[in-house]
From TrEMBL:
It comes from the Eukaryota. The lineage of its organism: Eukaryota, Fungi, Fungi incertae sedis, Mucoromycota, Glomeromycotina. Keywords: Coiled coil. Residues 21-91 form a coiled coil. This is Uncharacterized protein.
Amino acid sequence: MTNQELKEKLYSTIKSKAEINDLSEKLVDKYNEREKEFENKASQLNASTTKVRSQLISERKSHCKNQRELEAKYTAEIKLLKSNIKTLKREATLA
């Protein structure tokens, strides 16, 4: 192999290495960009999850409160109706 051929091979190798380095840098940049996008999306999902969880807790508390109020109301109505039935039975036996 001549000196000129060696120089050309060396130049070609150096050029290829530079191209590989450029591609590698581009890939690293793209990876870093995607990683940031992923972190942002993960952060948004966490915020949304926290918001939904908070809403569910609030709705459960409200539902439980409403349920207790309805139970108290219907319990009072049932007691009143039972009392009315007893009164009507007494009146029926006296009549």
